[in-house]
């Protein structure tokens, strides 16, 4: 199949374990980075919006801001793809419980923040971005599907693209179903052509696979296994921190995305 080739210019990362990509690189070197703050800073949002925004928005905006800052790009000019397996799980759980018990008490504000593209909306408004934006979901394959979507847009339109993938911890029956017990987000800025700020080159090849071949292995107790998006993104993030490598990501139940990463000199 055709291989997509894109340049990586920026990386954003946030979890309860690490506050940014530099912390991941430090861990790869055997160092102990400082603990992240209790909540993502999301400095791109105005102060009033930060106080009102749900955790899902703060997480997505935080990693998006990190990746864009590293890339040196202007946020308002970047097309963006936001990917989340389950959206805002806390609000979804609240809405289901409220509709079942007291539907007249449903909060319009929480309903507004429940839509899957809420983080994309907050980001594009805060940064004044009028470029194309989309929000996708593919369950546990959402990271691979998001990367494929962003890379395809990058190559087809020959323009840089911001990819943001994030999921917060679940709650109630939805949390039990999703298996998401911690918050995690990551972001990548992709470019179609090599530039001064390019960190690495990605070669992406879509391949068919049997539905059960990319299932997670037995749990090891690693922190990233507590969030499906983190578990999906972890192989590529490790390669980024090492400066090279190959991994295969689920992009759909029967589609795999092989990613070969080459560090640029």
Number of helices: 9
CATH fold type: Peroxisomal Thiolase, Chain A, domain 1
Q: Look at the structure and give the CATH class.
A: Alpha Beta
Q: Unreliable stretches, pLDDT < 50, 5 or more residues? A: none
| Sequence of secondary-structure elements | EHHHEHHHEHEHEEHEE
Mean pLDDT: 90
Alpha-beta content class: alpha+beta
The number of distinct structural domains comes to: 1
CATH homologous superfamily title: Thiolase/Chalcone synthase
CATH architecture term:
3-Layer(aba) Sandwich
Helix content: 25-40%
Q: Over all CA atoms, what is the radius of gyration?
A: 18 Å
Major sheet: order of its strands? 3-2-4-5-1-6-8-7
Anisotropy-based shape? globular
Strand runs, count: 8
For the sheet with most strands, the description reads: 8 strands, mixed
Distance between the termini: 28 Å
Folded structure, characterized:
This protein is α+β, with helices and mostly antiparallel strands. The protein has one domain (8-197): Thiolase/Chalcone synthase (Peroxisomal Thiolase, Chain A, domain 1, 3-Layer(aba) Sandwich), CATH 3.40.47.10. Helices cover 37% and strands 24% of the residues. The chain is built from 9 helices and 8 strands. The protein has helices at 21-28, 47-52, 55-71, 89-101, 108-114, 118-127, 142-157, 172-178, 228-242; strands at 3-15, 79-83, 133-136, 161-167, 184-191, 200-208, 244-252, 255-263. Strands 3-2-4-5-1-6-8-7 form an 8-stranded mixed sheet, with helices on both faces. Strand 7 and strand 8 form a beta hairpin. The longest helix is centred in the N-terminal third of the chain and has 17 residues, at 55-71. The chain is globular and about 60 Å long. The model has no long low-confidence stretch (mean pLDDT 90).
